[in-house]
Amino acid sequence: MIRIGDWISKAWEIFTKSVGVHIVLALIVGLGSLLTIGILAGPLACGWLYIILRQLREPDYKPEIGDIGKGFEVFGQAFVAHLLVAAALVVLWIVMFVLSFVPLVGSLLGFVVVLAGALLVSTVVLFVDLLIIDRRMEAVEAIKASIEKVKPEFWGFFGFAVLASVIAGAGIIGCGIGTLVTVPVATIAIAIAYQDNFEDLAAPAKPEIPAPPPAPPVEQ
After folding, report:
1. Which tens digit of pLDDT belongs to each residue from 25-42?
2. Which domain range does residue 114 map to?
3. I need a surface site. Which of 5, 23, 204, 208 has the fewest CB within 10 A?
4. What is the DSSP letter of 66?
């Protein structure tokens, strides 16, 4: 299900309801990831997404910055998932380096390969962090589930991933201050897309209650 316009407009609505909280969360995730060389990127992102999902599902929920700590409950799987994505990006950079030795067009070709590859990777792993924090999936399982969901409507999700990247990156204009608005909006939009496309997985299934045994026959 692709509803890019609806996802973006609803993301803006959610953001404007808790502007201060999401700006602080964006700072925590950004600085925390940077200062730890990406080690905390996964759990911090998962914690932020946990807060967003609660906002979407619970109208009375007031976002609490401290709830970002929920991401550390899935620290291992979030870290592995981000490590695998980083490894894929490193491969792309190696390809670009090799292509740079091609005469005349090498540098341009390498740049195109890295850009296209990065957008491809960001598309297929669009829902990985959400599956890890929401369904407590293992990293590889979450990557496979995200790919399977994206695959039937790949170009629609690809367009959404590109737009989300453009929105998030647009905040760089003006000394980067705008990212405190654009990154939260893009992040919230991805969570809304997840909710639309994983409704059957939105909450863990409740165990079935066994039917009571039939009453014994009444003796005449």
Report:
1. 999 999 999 999 999 999
2. 4-198
3. 208
4. G
